Amino acid sequence: AARLCSGAGGRAEAAGEDGAMLRHLARKLRASGPVTVAEYMREALTNPGQGYYTRRGGVGESGDFITSPEISQVFGELIGIWYISEWMAMGKPNTFQLVELGPGRGTLTEDILRVFKQLASVLSKCDVSVHLVEVSPKLSEIQAVTLTGGKVQPNPEDELAYMKGISKTGIPISWYRDIQDVPPGYSFYLAHEFFDALPIHKFQRTEKGWREVLVDIDPQVPDQLRFVLSPSRTPATQHFIQPEETRDHVEVCPEAGVIVQRLASRIEKDGGAALVADYGHDGTKTDTFRGFRNHRLHDVLSAPGTADLTADVDFSYLRKMVQGKTATLGPIKQREFLKNMGIDLRLQVLLQNSGDTATREQLLHSYDMLMNPEKMGDCFNFFALLPHHRLVHPDKKDKSESKSPLPPVAGFNELLLK
Ligand code: SAH
Q1: pTM of the prediction?
Q2: C-beta of 112 in contact with ligand 1 (< 6 A)
Q3: Residue 350 belongs to a domain
Q4: Each residue of 361-409: pLDDT tens digit?
Q5: Domain containing 342: what range?
Q6: The domain spanning residue 90 has which CATH number?
């Protein structure tokens, strides 16, 4: 099963695994008191020694959760077409970087690069390079195998990249730990199920005002964690809760805000576009923090480091953090985006080309997973950042000059392939 969208039911798995991460956290909490949920999540997911992504990184069928690119090749192919369609609409610049944040097993990039290869005649005069932002050594190794067959150079000299290689299709690939290390330049950014993995702060409205939810050690039970409320307002409460807030419980992901700001600044300065796809809401949901292990819901405070922790992405917050530097489109539901991108036609072609019943059934099953509103079709969303001039003609002094209409942005409108 895919990671369920928040609110979907499921049995929380009681894991009794007392690992090194729990001992590390318990020591820390006993020594210096409760930590924010964001700090807990950061430790549990990306601690350099024991973090979930660092060690386990369980994307895929044999892991803890499955994602759209792992379900169907069509997903990545349509995203590849989105980038080509935007590249064409923006006047076919002679070079671009494809920058993916949190590439998982590298499957999505692999599917995109296959489309780039199939459309090599269209891209022939364009210099393309791939830049992957990944903190997990374990997943970067898997990405290297998927994309280059394992032929990579670690720690290249004079580079901010920690690894370099050439894709099986001949495109240079570099790996970084931080988006800030990626060289500037015209870039197409991609973040699929990335923002949901970034640490969130949680706040609860009480009779005494807003309080931050913290993680502490339970004094009654050794090495068991529990949620507590901060006794007074914390700096985060003051920063992140808007006076007009009407919800009783709010989650905020400042790191997502910082990264989106960086994307917006880079696009404003050097051009390109960003596509963000994730489950999320538009500033309406409350408690969405949850854990996954072996494809089941998992208690977020139990056996940290052994389960994926995630929270819905607040697209209204991302839009706010763009601060008008770029235009934004969406969020639009995954099933609408993929329909606009021509998924039905692509499915028909694949069905016609597949000889055996098992493959056909697999194609129909994966289509249903991606598109069914009860599965991933409705709760996953697409959101884009685009330069303002991509959507509105910049004001020209000479008003008499006739302006041809700007081509619609595929996915958010029907794809028009010329
Ligand atoms: N996009 C992939 C994987 C999603 S899982 C897919 O859809 O299949 C989240 C990915 O983000 C993993 O690759 C994880 O290692 C990476 N990640 C998590 N936190 C990160 C951070 N702070 N910086 C960079 N990568 C991070």
Answers
A1: 0.94
A2: no
A3: yes
A4: 999 999 999 999 999 999 999 999 999 999 998 875 555 566 778 899 9
A5: 67-198+253-390
A6: 3.40.50.12710
